[in-house]
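Onboarding guide, step 5: your first structure request.
Type a short instruction followed by the sequence, for example:

Predict the 3D structure of this protein.
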Amino acid sequence: MNASAEHHSKKEKTQEETERLNDVQILLDEADDVPVPLSVYEDPIGLYLLSPSGALQDRSKLVLAEKRLTKMGFRVTVDKAADAQDLRFAGTDKQRARAFSRAAKDSSTVVMSTRGGYGISRILHQIDWKLLENNPKKYIGYSDFTAFNLALLAKTGLSSFTGPAAVSDFGNKKVDDLTAEIFVESMRGELEILSFESPDSDAVDARGTLWGGNLAMIASLVGTPYLPKIKNGILFFEDVGEHPYRVERMLTHLLHAGILQKQKAILLGHITDYKLTENDNGYDMPHVIKWLKEQVNVPVVYGLPYGHGEVRVTLPIGKKVGVATEDGMAYLVLEEHVHSHEAEAGADDSSEQGHAHESVHLHVHDEPKLASKEKTGKKSKK
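The system replies with structure tokens like these:
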């Protein structure tokens, strides 16, 4: 329904709302219980939901996501145009751009996209970046939201997050517990290290600005004022539904723009849901990565559990992090703190790259599937 079409009678609205609530109840009855938080938070975090890209196909899923996020320790506010529709978009360009202004003025500390799709590129020049700079928030989304993440960094210098989206991750029958828990910990500043299986990765031990997201969106911003100029950074990317030759073409674009060779490391997330043809003659994604490594003398790390797959970790964009590989594992140090452990007294901290930190360990393969969701190590509630 178009947000501007407010001509329904009170009776029609009541019937529509009843049907919507019934749909939500059905989803709640069928849905798995959200396994997070592990403990009840007494200090809910304000979270503002907006729809800057594609239109919602089923508003009952937004209501379900709101209920789930509330149980996870958030005080949820839904933007007045979150369920608007204009063609394929969640409202007109002006409506969607103004949603960011309303979010900036709201008291919530976290601003989350309801879903991805397409549409943020159309409104980058309409967003009030100065207002956002003066009212910093923790913005989070993925896919199309990459355009906003990178534009925010380029225009204001502010960092943001890429990770789950409200409806996409919390509005369906099932919720991935690891995706949800890491999101909560990230918003509360509790996540320090991500470690994941990364066989055949290049040796790397570096620090730099973490940036990236959806590869198609990154490539689309080259040559615009909305792509941050990052040297000695740690670039990560993912994509969905893009044939290997298209992925290679986008990487070629970044290569010729002089971007890839300026990075300290390149992290590969999920590249999924593409189909090969007979004309490919065996040409597949491994050939693309082989070509990439032949072009740039930059370490490549495999297996980052991020993208359009089952598990989507939350990552900061525009923040200094550390990355290291060792014995088939990769370590992404998001928060650097000094911990004292009696059992490790006298250990040489400088040689461990933060491995002694309290951490969340992810066990994933190079493919976009989890080998195990078992977590090791301890976490502290701050």
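Each response can be followed by summary notes, for example: The first strand starts at residue 45 and ends at 50.
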